[in-house]
Amino acid sequence: MTIWDQTEKVLLIDDDPDIHDLVDFHLADRVGYLMGALNARAGGVLASQEKPDLILLDIRMPDEDGLSLCRKLQADVSTRDIPVIFLTGCDEPDQLVEAFEAGAVDYIRKPICRTELIARVGARLSAKNKLNHAREQARLDGLTGLGNRIALDECLAERVAEHQEESFPFSLAILDLDYFKTINDGYGHQMGDEIICAAVRAFVRMSRPYDRLFRFGGDEFVVVVPGGEPEDAEVVVSRMLDAVSGIRLPVQDGQVSVTCSGGLISQSERSPSLSAKALLERADKALYEAKRTGRNRLVIGSAD
Fold this sequence. Notes:
Number of domains: 2
Number of helices: 10
Strand content: 15-25%
Oligomer: single chain
CATH superfamily of the largest domain: Reverse transcriptase/Diguanylate cyclase domain
Mean pLDDT: 93
CATH architecture of the largest domain: 2-Layer Sandwich
């Protein structure tokens, strides 16, 4: 049984207004947003702008057939992951083979049967939701729930592109727990995990809604601070380090405390754009300096 969450966007591209009325009648109360286009050109524009969760595409239209449009959607990186179900009045095997070769995931025969429409659309949206969930889970760290290296790479790619194109400023800091290996070896991996989770709670408590936190690996974390001046990012990250220094966890012979060091690098409106790799390297160099000069401190690196 399909569970409709009524948040999905479905785009119908068909030159017959009666088909639009029919599909709207059967799906309007099941999907969140049903969009329509009467020709391939308008449909392609809507697909690019709205990024629907599913496209219902007429295989035969006067201006451009659905096969051609489907190939274009598959060739475009922004739309190639959108599943396409063809609407067709033809049962010829060659045409159906051509439809699947063009990138379709399914087809619905005309005249449209209500039961078939609901079943096939529901099944495809359910599969898309499961895929989206799996992709999201693949971007999360299992212990902390923070974004992992995959999510960090995606975030940095976006921030770097924004700085290159619009000079939009942002800052990046690598945070590393001090003497974590000693704690982990002395009290065991379970206590090590508890320390990591306590540090993450401290980071989250001191961050703002639009700051992004990631687990870089082991006891290393990255925080990306968008917008503002470098001094603003320094305040945010310093508060995180201060919060970690207040952590106390009970153990058999007393309690365990921990501190954190950080290396911060900023891309201001005036600074030259650096690659994600270069930013991480400079932040890591600043972190090394923080460790070398006594730990439990933040060192500011240079972007010049």
